[in-house]
Amino acid sequence: MELLMAREPFASMSPWYGGYAFQGVVVLGTAPILLPLIVGDATGPAQAGLVVAALYIGQLTAPMFGALADGSGRHRLIYAAGYLLLAVGLGLFPLAQTVLEWFILALMQGLGVAATNTVASMFIVEFRPKAEWDRRIGWMQTCYGIGQAAGLGLAALLQQAPAWGMLASAALMLPGLLIGLLGTPRGRRAGLGAAAAAAQTLKRGASISDDATSRRHAPPRQILPHGHIGPATGALLGRFLADLRSPYALFMLCWLLVMLGTWLIYNLYPLLMQEVYGVGAGVSSVYYAVGAGIGVFAYAPSGILGQRIGDGAVVLIGSLMSLLSVGAMAALAFWQPVGLALLGPLAFLLLPVAWSPLIVAGTAWAAQLSTMNEGEAVGILNSTTALASVAAAFGAGVLASRFGFDAVLYLAAAAMLLGLLLLLPLRRAGSAGASSPG
Predict the structure, then answer these.
(1) Is 333 helix (H, G, I), strand (E, B) or coil?
(2) Which of 99, 138, 275, 306 lies in disulfide reach of 311, CB 3.0 to 4.6 Å?
(3) What Cα–Cα distance (Å) separates residue 416 from each residue in 59, 125, 194, 381?
(4) Which pairs with CB-CB distance under 8 Å and at least 24 residues apart come from 187-192?
(5) Cα separation of 410 and 326, whole Å?
(6) pLDDT the model gives residue 374
(7) Cβ contact 307:301 at 8 Å
């Protein structure tokens, strides 16, 4: 199978990846630029940060949607509901007049992102053989990244009329939904044998690997915890807290710090670039699009590189790239050299490129380091990312309103540096753990 996938890389593509790319246009393209512009221009950076935080608060419900999909078997319905929630939240956003209304609509968008992104990953890890995961996830993220680059280009064109941009984003969810349902798995998990189905019935919440041999060495296949929403979430948190001294827990701390630094930059990106470097939203969106476009080509190679040198090493590379980018941006803001309007965006370019190795290898390494099953480990990783996004949105808004956007850059660089320093001894511990049997 691996040889076949290597010879025919496009065999890992599925039609629904194209529809998923439409969501990338909006979620990582137009909305991150236009949403803070609308709220920031009408109120201020603190209020803009609050509304952006609502977007990520909604995404904290990802474990709930994962449990709901597994419990009901309605993966396609939940996946489609995500597009509809996004369409409503985006379409009504320009009509809102108060921070509360914007907050509710941003929260609705976050719920849509959580539903669709969670089930998209489940379509692969619950319905495809483990040997196909890396390449399929790589291609899925590549399509999402292509959508992001296109969305940022669209945002550059529409930043003078952000309300129309949000309406256009809402309209894109219709073709996204129609194409996004093509070829998606129907019903409950496919490819389970009779023995696996019986075991799944006896032990709800446990994933069944493709065969008995791989089960000993491969963690379970779900991306998020199974079971009822309340008990599953509580039990998952309890197991994590009981294992706080493990390499996995330390990795979650490193991940939280790196993600905090990353999202401090992203959450109010157009406002930050305008205030610190004097670069308008149109130009800054173009730079973001270029960086994201380069990053698209790094998703699949990041998975391959992780197989060769280890996922921990790839996470370290991505973290170092992020620190170099944000550190340079902070240094430029401090020294204010000639050509700041050019140097600032150029320093930023590396940050979206670094996202590719971080998210691909980070997901795989989390599953390897954890003593929990894979679904629980990755579920906590996703929740940690969302938690960092929420904290960064609140923090960026408050810091910018009180101390200026320079302070946002300094805090982002400090968080990334601390995360990277903690990652160095962890990589050695993780390598030792990965080489041990069982």
Answers:
(1) helix
(2) 306
(3) 23, 30, 48, 17
(4) 187/73, 188/73, 189/126, 189/127, 190/127, 191/127, 191/128, 191/129
(5) 9
(6) 65
(7) no
The pLDDT value recorded for residue 56 is 84
Cα–Cα distance for residue pair 313/297, rounded to 1 Å = 19
User: Quick one: how far is CA 109 from the chain centroid?
Assistant: 15
Q: Report pLDDT for 226.
A: 28
Q: How far is CA 253 from CA 69, 198, 288, 291, 386, in A?
A: 29, 38, 27, 27, 13
Distance CA 344, CA 325 (A): 10
Run of H or E residues at 189: none
Q: What's phi and psi for 207, nearest 5 deg?
A: -90, 155
The three-class DSSP label of residue 39 is helix
What is the residue-wise DSSP string for 229-272? HHHHHHHHHHHHHTTTTSHHHHHHHHHHHHHHHHHHHHTTHHHH
Q: What's CA 328's distance to the chain center, in Å?
A: 24
Residue 146 Cα distances to 51, 129, 142, angstroms? 26, 25, 6
**DSSP characters for 282-301?**
HHHHHHHHHHHHHHHTTHHH
* Farthest CA pair distance, the chain: 69
CA dist 187 and 229 (Å) reads: 20
| Four-way CATH pick for 12-183+218-433: 1.20.1250.20, 1.10.10.10, 3.40.50.720, 1.10.260.40 | 1.20.1250.20
Q: Say how many C-beta atoms besides its own lie within 10 A of residue 350's C-beta.
A: 19
**Cα angle 370, 376, 380; round to 5:** 85
Q: Give the three-state DSSP class for 10.
A: helix
Q: Which H/E stretch holds residue 193?
A: none
**Cα–Cα separations (whole angstroms), residue 343 to 7, 169, 262, 284:** 42, 31, 19, 12
**Residue labelled with tokens 């919440």:** 205
Alpha-carbon span 372 to 348, nearest angstrom: 36
DSSP letter string, 86-139: HHHHHHHGGG--SHHHHHHHHHHHHHHHHHHHHHHHHHHHTTS-GGGHHHHHHH
Tokens of 318: 């991505």
